[in-house]
Structure to design on (304 residues):
DNA sequence: TTTTTTTAGTGGACTATATCAACTAAAACT
DNA sequence: AGTTTTAGTTGATATAGTCCACTAAAAAAA
């Protein structure tokens, strides 16, 4: 138990603080008229360029049937198209339509804006220090994955 | 626009990374048999020691009717008690029962454990540096609240 | 090659989570 | 006293997510 109680309390306080930040950050997603989950699917399709439903299920850990319905909705709304795969006719290749790309870009631009807003009022030096701190935290914690991920 | 695109990308990557960390962190809450929202209410009651439903509504930004049902459930399960207020008979004073305190402590201890697990494998020096980085980020960002919190 | 098993996806039924609106009763204000 | 506001409850409904059974095709085994 090499880590002391005040430090733990501080870190939990930071976690609450940053949960808040992230919550405010993501709220703009809802402006699109889609839920967080739907938006996650849309963004992932945009990143993967082309994929099948199961890729998304694995990557985003969303139930297959739920994914099926989300894709159906996005497809119905004209944000994605499903093209029958010739290699495996159980599957469809999914990708964004131009309309889907528009929303994808809109979400990304808004997310960038949010980051800029967060830093508004800070000096270049301060921003650089925060950036460095974040990269440091990520580097140190990423390597371990010391969390109990009890997914069986 | 003094903040460059790579920095923004890095920070968004950090945000995704930390969202993940926080998600894994909080999962243990569900072991209690209560949802995140229910647990938030329970924890808040524990922190406030004594409160009325409306305090919780304001603090946690949860709908009144939903709050009413959550408190009813916690009360039915014997985690909180509602005592009629003599000062304002529209309200009840809510506080944790011993059983509620047990769960409150259980959640807190488990949360502390999670923090310790996260740092397992890091040296004292590294932990100290991460702690410092977090406090720095919080100090810098807390003051501004530069986010567009569009809550009307 | 035929049979068996696995995989991808869909749809029905359901549960859990959350919101909205109408209402009661008490408190606060005029 | 009469009116308005506030605290809380309940019914109805919406939204999000899960579970299960099923179809059809692919992959593996016989």
């Amino acid at each position: 138990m090499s880590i002391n109680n005040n430090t733990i309390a501080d870190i939990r306080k930071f976690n609450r603080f940053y949960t808040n930040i992230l919550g405010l950050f993501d709220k703009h997603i809802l402006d699109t008229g889609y839920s967080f989950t739907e938006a996650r699917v849309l963004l992932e399709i945009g990143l993967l360029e082309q994929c099948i439903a199961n890729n998304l299920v694995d990557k985003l850990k969303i139930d297959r049937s739920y994914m099926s319905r989300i894709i159906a909705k996005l497809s119905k709304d004209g944000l994605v198209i499903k093209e029958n795969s010739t290699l495996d006719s159980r599957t469809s290749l999914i990708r964004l339509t131009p309309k889907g790309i528009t929303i994808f870009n809109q979400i990304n631009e808004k997310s960038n804006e949010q980051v800029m807003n967060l830093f508004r009022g800070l000096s270049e030096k301060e921003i650089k220090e925060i950036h460095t701190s974040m990269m440091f935290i990520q580097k140190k914690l990423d390597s371990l994955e010391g969390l109990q991920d009890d997914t069986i």
